[in-house]
Each structure stands twice: as C-alpha cells, then as structure tokens.
Q: What sequence folds into this?
C-alpha cells in the first residue's frame, strides 16, 4: 500500500486559504467518489469469491455425478450381462419347452381322438347287441308259439287216430325243434345280457376316458398359451436388454459431458480466482488512494481553514472528550472497574441476526451514554442536517450503546434488524477499526454504510479518540451523509 501523506499546513494568506478551502471541498467530493469506487470493487471481490465458491460447489457436484455415472455404468453393464444370460437361457428353455409341448399336444390330441372314437364304436356295438337281443326275443317267442302249435298238432293227430299218425310224427319233430330253438334262444339271451353288462361297464369307462381326453386336450391348449407367454417374456427380456444398452450409452455420454463440465468449471474457477486477485489489488490501490485523500482532507482541516465539515469535527472532538471524562469519573467512583471497562471478551447474543454481542461494560454504557449521546443529537441535527448518528466504539469497532433510533429490539427480519438494531454490534471493517484505533486528534473518513438487504449509503465518518486515565479506550464516531 502506498505511504499515507504527511502534510504540514504552511499557508497563511487569505487567498491561499480560500483556494485551499476550495481544494478541500473538491477533495471531499473526490474522496466520496473514491470511497464509492472502493466499495464497488469490494462488492465485486465478494461477488467473485461467492462465484468461486459456487463454482467449486458445482465442480464437486460434477465430480460426484461423474462418480455416480461411473458406478451406474458399471451396474448397468452387469445388468445388461445378466439380461443377456437370462435372455439366452429363456430362449433355450422356451425352444425346448416348445418342442416338448408340441409333441405332447400331438400325442394327447391323437389319444383323445382315439378315446372319443372308441367310445363311439362301443356305443355302436351296444346298439347292435340291443338289436340282437330284440331279435333273440322274437325268436324265443316264435319258438314258444311253434312248440304250442306242435302240441296242438299232436293232440289233433291223436284224435285222428291212424290217419293222423304221420302228422303226429311231424308235430313231434317240430316240437323237438321248437324246444331246441327255445333253449338256444335262452342261452343266447343270457350271453347277450352278460355282454351287455360288460359293454355298459366298458362304455362307462370309455365315457370317463373321453372326458379325461377332452380335459387333456383343453389343458394342452392352455399349455400352448403358457408357451406363448414364455415367448412373450423372451421378447420382453430382449427389449429390456436393448433399453439397458441405450441407457448405458446415455450414461457414457453423460459421463463424458460431466468430465468436460468439470474441466470448464475448473477453468472458470481459475479465471475467477485470477480476477479476484486483480480485484484485491485494485481494492488495495483504491484504499490507498482513499487514505491519501483522507490525509489531504485532514491536512486541509488541520490548517485551520473552515470547511463544511469543520463544525462536525469540533463537535466530535468535544463529545469524545466528554465521554472520556465520564468514564474516568465512573471508574473513580467505583461504578465500573477499569478492567471491565476495557473488557474485550465479546459474548454472542443467542438467536440474534445480525449477530449482537455483550461485554462486561454494556450494562454500564447503556446507563451512562444515552444521557450524553442523545442530547448531542439535537444540536448536531440543528447544526447540520446531514448528520445520521453519533456513537462511541471501542478499539475493535464494537458499538455497545447506539442512538435510540438505531437500538430497536431485533425482530424476525434480518434486513430490518441490520438497519434498525445496530447496537451491540461489531463493526470491524476498515472504517470502524480506524475510528476505534486512531489516536489522531480526529479522523475524517469516507465509506459506504451497509443498511442491509444490499443497500448502501455513502457516508462520511469523523471520529476522535476516547481516552480514560491516559489509556486509549476507543473513539467517538459521527456519521453524516456525504
């Protein structure tokens, strides 16, 4: 960083003082512009860091996705191999089952048709036997009638005496023949009844076999449907195998794309980091120029020339001296110890956003400073409408007790809290630290005040050191619009 100017006022003439005052005013405007530029560079630096972090996150995500894709590709390759094996096995089994079922169906069809034809043949034989039985019955009746006729003929031949002797012989022969026919007919009838019984039982079995054969034929058709389903399953496995192959190609393409994206993001991060380095250098240069302009403004003010900021500078020095005296009296009276007054162990306030902090001297400053700080606001506001606040900070930029309008209880909105709850906050930025640690008679700075929610206000900040018993406690700050 460039060395800050060390200027000694030597001008005394009225004209020179007037020119110097004009230069001071112009330098003040320049410092405002420089402060704005430095703030913008700082915003760009922060944005660059944020972009770099996001890009790093994207790189990690891309690397993770590449890893996931690689694992997925391995899994899909294994799945495809399993699907190929399954497809081959199913195809072989389907062909074997198809051949077996086709042969079985043909045999079952032949056996079924034979059983059905046998049943029909048995039914035809039964019908023939039934007809034979009817014929046999008719013969038996004829034999009975013939035998009765022969008996009548014998009786008539006996009545005729010798004249009927020949007729009697014939009648006797007919009677014997009729008896033989009747006996044969009875035997035949008995045999036919036995055959009928056998055929009936055979017909019942044929009927059962026919029903079984018909059921077997039906089941063989169902087996064919199952075979068709098996072939459909083989086709489904083939489609799944194809789709897995297509998906595997997509995964491979994604892996290549993520690798390319990883390279692009890495290059982007490197570019952002390089830009961030340049922005850091630019911010250092801007802060250096801002420091030079502040030194120049301090030189103008120290020269005794009245500027538009002179009254505020004087009031700031007066307020700082009054607060230092107030602290010294409090220590002398034992209201607070010197160690507690200089406590730098900041304790976070739970659930505060933005973060608020407590120290051992907060309770004391909350009692002691408002009676001194608040009345100062009225004359300050009357003296210069640009004044926004006036408050004491310790050496680390910690502001324990703010003006009442900026010391509201925090709510649920962090943006509102940032603008209205500025007490008990650590303002350790460049301006805050400089105001708290400067031991010069006064320090006039230009900066952008963060109002929360990305809103900023261009401000000037004049500060004067607060000392307690010769020990530097911090500074009193007056912020006013640039």
A:
């Amino acid at each position: 960083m460039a060395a800050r100017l060390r200027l000694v006022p030597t001008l005394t003439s009225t004209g020179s003082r007037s020119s110097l005052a004009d230069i001071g005013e112009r330098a003040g405007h320049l410092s405002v512009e420089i402060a704005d530029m430095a703030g913008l560079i700082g915003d760009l630096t922060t944005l660059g860091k944020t972009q770099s972090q996001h890009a790093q996150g994207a790189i990690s995500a891309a690397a993770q996705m590449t890893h996931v894709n690689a694992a997925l590709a391995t899994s899909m390759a294994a799945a495809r191999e399993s699907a190929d094996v399954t497809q081959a096995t199913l195809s072989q089994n389907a062909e074997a089952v198809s051949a077996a079922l086709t042969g079985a169906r043909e045999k079952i069809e032949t056996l079924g048709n034979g059983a059905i034809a046998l049943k029909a043949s048995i039914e035809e034989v039964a019908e023939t036997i039934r007809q034979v039985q009817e014929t046999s019955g008719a013969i038996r009746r004829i034999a009975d009638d013939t035998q009765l006729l022969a008996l009548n003929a014998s009786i008539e031949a006996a009545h005729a005496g010798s004249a009927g002797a020949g007729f009697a012989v014939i009648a006797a022969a007919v009677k014997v023949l009729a008896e033989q026919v009747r006996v044969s007919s009875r035997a035949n009838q008995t045999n036919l009844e036995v055959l009928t019984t056998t055929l009936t039982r055979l017909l019942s079995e044929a009927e059962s076999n026919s029903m079984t054969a018909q059921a077997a034929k039906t089941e063989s058709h169902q087996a064919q449907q199952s075979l068709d389903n098996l072939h459909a399953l083989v086709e489904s496995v083939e489609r799944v195998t194809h789709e897995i192959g297509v998906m595997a190609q997509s995964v491979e393409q994604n892996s290549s794309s993520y690798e390319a994206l990883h390279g692009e993001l890495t290059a982007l991060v490197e570019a952002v980091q390089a830009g961030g380095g340049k922005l850091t250098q630019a911010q250092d240069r801007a802060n250096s120029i801002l420091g030079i302009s502040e030194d120049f403004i301090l030189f103008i003010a120290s020269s005794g020339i009245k500027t538009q900021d002179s009254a505020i500078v004087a009031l700031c020095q007066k307020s700082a001296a009054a607060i230092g005296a107030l602290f010294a009296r409090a220590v002398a009276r034992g209201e607070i110890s010197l160690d507690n007054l200089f406590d730098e162990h900041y304790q976070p306030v739970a659930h505060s956003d933005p973060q608020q902090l407590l120290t051992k001297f907060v309770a004391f400053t909350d009692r002691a400073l408002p009676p001194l700080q608040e009345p100062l606001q009225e004359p300050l506001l009357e003296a210069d409408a640009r004044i926004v606040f006036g408050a004491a900070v310790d050496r680390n930029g910690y502001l324990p007790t703010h003006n009442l309008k900026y010391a509201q209880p925090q709510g649920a909105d962090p943006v509102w809290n940032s603008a209205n709850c500025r007490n008990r906050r650590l303002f350790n930025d460049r301006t805050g630290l400089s105001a708290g640690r400067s031991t010069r008679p006064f320090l006039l700075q230009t900066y952008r005040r963060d109002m929360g929610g990305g809103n900023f206000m261009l401000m000037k900040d004049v500060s004067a050191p607060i000392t307690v018993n010769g020990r530097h406690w911090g500074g009193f700050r007056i912020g006013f619009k640039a």
About this structure: Confidence is low (pLDDT under 50) at residues 1-12. Helices lie at 14-160, 165-302, 310-333, 338-341, 362-368, 370-383, 414-420, 430-437.
